Amino acid sequence: MSAWFGSNKVLERITLTMEPGRVTALIGPSGCGKSTFLRILNRMHELIPSAALSGSVELDNVNIYGPSVRVTDTRLRIGMVFQRPNPFPSMTIAQYVLSGLRLSGTKVRNPDALVKDCLERAGLWKETRNRLNEAGAALSGGQQQRLCIARALAVRPKVLLMDEPCSALDPISTSVIEETIRELCQELTIVIVTHNMQQAQRVSDTCALFLVDSEGAAGHIVEAGPTQQMFDSPRDPRTADYVHGRFG
Hints:
Blueprint lengths: L1 E4 L2 E4 L11 E5 L6 H7 L10 E4 L3 E2 L2 E2 L7 H7 E4 L11 H11 L7 H11 L3 H4 L12 H14 L4 E5 L7 H14 L4 E5 L3 H7 L2 E6 L8 E7 H6 L4 H7 L5
Parallel strand pairs: 3-9, 3-10, 7-8, 8-9
Antiparallel strand pairs: 1-2, 1-4, 5-6, 10-11
Helix pairs in contact: 3-6, 4-6, 6-7
């Protein structure tokens, strides 16, 4: 795929396979298109009036940009967790977990059981089981991020996209989120953008390095492969330089 904002090309011929049941980390300096690529994967790119796209994104061999595929259906299958947690201040913890389902008009037979299941899978149940009627915004930053993960899980997605989910968190909260990611990848495909090379090594199975060759050029993938190989014996010298902190 390639992508534009107006006449500005931001991604150049991106080809990447994200394997099911694996964590794929997108790494690279700021401004090389990682977050744009992530948003393309669940059709948020098209919300920007000047945005354009060529190519396709296939999930189970179906192009999610095909004319017969509804945006709502795509976002139910491909969830998104953003850089900063964003629980609605007027909603309780339980209401927020279910909010995605309600917005999509999906009926839930046993909402209490679903709230518990999603909070357990997000590693938040023990901390919130006696606070379900309190505002989600009253939780700590790390807890709010896990609450956002629980909300994303409630719609039963096949893929979970995470845009720097730990960048605003302390080390302890980061560790909890990383543990949650490793547990969730047993049932989901996860794609995460991170600038933390240690985090990429800890949580991902596969890495893809995005770079921009010169000012004004479009981002492209320099190298992609198993995480251990990318860090220990990369094929491209630019990969070695980046993952070992010599630039970026």
